[in-house]
Specification:
globular, 76% helix, 348 residues
Length: 348
């Protein structure tokens, strides 16, 4: 079968029997066990930091956290988080729509993207890859886009998400390097962060030149098609279109921390929050890597690790609720009315 006409099993991650077999392989099981053990270790480290801070105030860890959250202004917090979550959804849908139009379906309307992107938030509660599968399935059914081509666009988006975080963090570090030095008591962040950022800024132009010139190697991989098609202006525009969400996050986290009586500045958030988001992308349950990084960057406020967990949980649940609002239309887009058309076609 040619690459242009893949079966449904090639479209949704985890759909084929081969993928299920790989998911149950010893290496896969070992990886899952290792990630859960690492996550448990991260939670233990965070708990230890909180316990130390609580002991200084003559409290135990749980009393310390109850006091911390009890002092927060939850009404203003909700007034901050709900509009930002809606804003994030619209910006996220817009940049995804742009990329899909460029490389997959030029005729796709923005209003058609909204229910599919929203429904992916629901699926991502269970598995991030299944969330991506909703987009892939929609593009196949409505625009005849092969699964590997749609996935290549998502990989491009993922790469630029990482680069955008590093770009904004580099700006924040350059403007507030003294804050990085002060936060380097446990890890040499004043060395690690500039080194990682320098590597990223050297790599990206090399990456673009590699995929835009020559033949062979990774350029011929179908799943990297979007990299061959993307011009430098596309990379720039993706960062530009994504930027409002990160800038919004910096502002929201700064004000939210102030509502929890934590004294931070926009400069600190600009330098540190993108790096924390990168740590959250590590394949650890409950974004455990980000929790530890919060305590490293804000050693005087170890409780902010729990604060970040509350922020993230609210954010993903509220985005999933947006998906629920769009679910009837998403079902029609993906499966036909009520989701029964596909079932009949497969059994009949």
């Amino acid at each position: 079968m040619s690459e242009e006409t893949p079966t449904d099993d090639t479209l949704v991650p985890g759909a084929s029997g081969d993928r299920n077999d790989r998911a149950k392989s010893p290496w896969s099981i070992l990886f899952r066990v290792a990630t859960w053990l690492l996550a448990a270790g991260c939670f233990y480290l965070v708990y230890g930091k909180i316990e130390e801070a609580a002991a200084r105030d003559g409290l135990n860890a749980w009393q310390y956290l109850v006091e911390f959250f009890g002092e927060a202004d939850w009404v203003f917090w909700l007034a901050l988080m709900i509009p930002y979550s809606v804003f994030f959804f619209l910006v996220d849908s817009h940049v995804t729509w742009r990329v899909v139009r460029w490389f997959n379906a030029p005729e796709l309307k923005f209003t058609s993207m909204l229910p599919i992107r929203a429904s992916a938030y629901i699926l991502s509660l269970v598995n991030e890859q299944v969330g991506k599968g909703a987009m892939t399935l929609y593009l196949l059914r409505h625009h005849k886009v092969p699964g590997w081509r749609a996935l290549s666009s998502m990989i491009l988006l993922g790469l630029m998400e990482i680069f955008q975080l590093l770009l904004f963090s580099a700006i924040g570090v350059a403007l507030n390097f003294q804050l990085v030095v002060e936060a380097s008591t446990q890890w040499p962040l004043d060395v690690i962060l500039p080194a990682v950022m320098l590597f990223a800024f050297v790599y990206l132009p090399v990456h673009i030149v590699y995929f835009r010139t020559g033949e062979g190697g990774l350029r011929e991989k179908p799943i990297l098609t979007a990299f061959r098609q993307a011009r430098p202006v596309h990379y720039f525009l993706i960062v530009l279109f994504k930027a409002p969400n990160l800038i919004g996050a910096v502002i929201v986290y700064t004000f939210a921390l102030e509502l929890f009586q934590v004294d931070v500045s926009l400069g600190q958030m600009l330098a540190f929050l993108p790096v924390i988001f990168l740590a959250a992308a590590l394949p650890l349950p409950f974004h455990a890597g980000a929790l530890v990084l919060w305590t490293v960057l804000f050693p005087d406020y170890p409780e902010v690790a729990v604060f970040s967990f509350v922020m993230h949980t609210f954010f993903v649940l509220f985005n999933a609720s947006i998906g629920v609002l769009f679910l009837p239309r998403a079902n029609r887009e993906l499966f036909g009315v009520g989701g029964f058309r596909v079932g009949r076609s497969r059994t009949g």
